[in-house]
Specification:
With 183 residues, this protein is of the alpha/beta class. It has one domain: 3-Layer(aba) Sandwich (Rossmann fold), CATH 3.40.50.2020. Helix content is 22%, strand content 36%. The strands form 2 sheets. The protein has a 6-stranded mixed beta sheet with strand order 4-3-2-5-6-7, with helices on both faces. The longest helix is centred in the N-terminal third of the chain and has 20 residues. The model has no long low-confidence stretch (mean pLDDT 87).
């Protein structure tokens, strides 16, 4: 099978930067209002896809930010395997902390639905979810994140700004549709 080709830009570098700034302001405002631990938030980035978004978002949040990372693997090529393998959970101590899970995309919600119980077990003060992209299926009623950068309204396989196809295209500064995607 030939390598899929890049399609049109869905969200430009400028649009992404603007939206990440807005999300950072909203998160800053929301977490300053917390009665316990106000002004602090622990970002838990889901690797590898969230890394670009996580770094930019952390710089836009005007609070005491701590960063933790977990790795989740659930895709092979264009398709979800239907299972999620996590690593990096054993070292997390989130007790009493305000935790914000940072994802690149939530489509079916499988990864986050399986991750949240693990994080809840550590007894955080609060637990919320932020995603750069709400996938097409998310708009149809799957898991609803607390913060969404952009909502996809059509079924498409997207790459760039951390999102990948077989670990390729992550370094693109914008988000593009991948042509010839077999879903």
């Amino acid at each position: 099978m030939a390598k899929p080709s890049l399609g049109p830009v869905l969200f430009s570098q400028k649009q992404i930067a603007s939206r990440v700034y807005t999300l950072g302001c909203q998160i800053t405002d929301d977490y300053r209002k917390m009665t316990f631990g106000a002004g602090q938030v622990t970002l838990v980035g889901v690797m590898k896809g969230s890394i670009m978004f996580l770094a930019d978002l952390a710089r836009e949040i005007e609070l005491d930010v701590q960063i933790e990372l977990v790795r989740a693997e659930s895709y092979h090529g264009f398709a979800s395997t239907g299972t999620v393998a996590f690593s990096g959970l054993a070292h997390l101590n989130l007790t009493g902390r305000h935790v914000l899970v940072v994802e690149d995309i939530i489509d079916s919600g499988l990864t986050v639905q399986q991750l949240l119980p693990h994080l809840q077990h550590t007894q955080p003060a609060s637990l919320a979810v932020c995603t750069l992209l709400g996938g097409y299926r998310t708009s149809l009623g799957a898991l609803q994140p607390d913060y969404v950068g952009f909502q996809l309204t059509e079924k498409a396989f997207v790459v760039g700004y951390g999102l990948d196809y077989n670990n390729q295209y992550r370094n693109l500064p914008d988000i593009r549709i991948l042509k010839d995607a077999e879903e």
